[in-house]
Amino acid sequence: MNFHRKPTTFVSHVNIKVQNLVRSLQFYQEIIGFQILEQTSTTAKLTTDGRTNILSLEQPEHVIPKQGRTTGLYHFALLLPEKKDLADIVVHLSEKGVRFGSSDHLVSEALYLHDPDGNEIEIYIDREPSEWNWNGEEVAMAVDPLDFERLLENRVLGQSWQGLPERTLMGHIHLHVAELKKTEEFYVMGLGFDVVNRFGSQALFLSTGKYHHHIGVNTWNGVGAPKPPENSVGMESYTIVLPHEEARKETVAKLQSIGVTVLEEQGRLFTYDPSGNRIELAV
Fold first, then answer.
1. Exposure class string for 31-49: b at 16+ Cβ within 10 A, else e
2. CA torsion 142→143→149→152, rounded to 10°?
3. Burial of 61 (0-12, 13-18, 19+ CB in 10 A)
4. Where are the alpha helices (DSSP H) in the chain?
5. What is the pLDDT of residue 173?
6. CB within 8 Å of 166: residues ≥ 6 apart
């Protein structure tokens, strides 16, 4: 499956803010299974393969707890390589006494849990794309119960949990937004994503390359929800990878044509969606 490599445009990295870096690192290593790639007194870059940073943590000055009813992170989603990996983490979380939710989305099977600051994490495995049901340009997704008995049949008995597999990816991100009309224009006309599912009038799922979704957006925190304070727990930014430099230039031009500002910071390009979610445009 080539949904998270060029020439597809995809989400590769998320940077989140936490209240206590030491506490968060313990959670992300012992419970989720990351390794530390780089660390300072207030930041950490996490990896699964010892080379690629897919999740970063930072502890802002004068940090305050996660604020409710705002825009920002709904969840980030870690995509595992194989079904046995999801089965293994079910057993691991159960043994650690960690509470988690679950769902069968037809296109994927997923677990949901929160870090110590309330940032939500999805951990999932994709079904084979040949099993996805497309109705024209929209893919069928649902929120059905997960069949744990069937999932756990994929376990390799006698193997101890070794943390996240090295081929784990940032599969997608799901965001709270203030409204959907301008948001759809931004992601479709500006960034070049396709709408692949409309969840009533409250959520959109977007992708490139016919993936079930690289980005989800919803108004479940209320239409007109405000942007959270800069120093609150939540998402600092996420990264979209474009196929090549020419594609990035074209994307910048499209964004500017619809009135969106693109900023350069130390050689990196950033923009904001209409709800204030910060996005790095990478190649």
1. bbbbeebeeeeeebbbbbe
2. 80
3. exposed
4. 21-27, 83-96, 148-152, 181-185, 245-257
5. 98
6. 48, 49, 50
pLDDT tens, position by position, 103-121: 999 999 999 999 999 999 9
Go through the domains of the chain in sequence order and give each one's CATH number. Answer: 10-282 (3.10.180.10)
Q: Is 209 helix (H, G, I), strand (E, B) or coil?
A: coil
Ramachandran category for residue 128: left, alpha or beta (phi over 0 → left; psi -120 to 50 → alpha): beta
pLDDT digits (tens, 9 = 90+) for 38-92: 999 999 999 999 999 999 999 999 999 999 999 999 999 999 999 999 999 999 9
The C-alpha atoms of residue 38 and residue 193 are separated, in whole angstroms, by 32
CA–CA gap between residue 138 and residue 150 (Å, rounded): 28
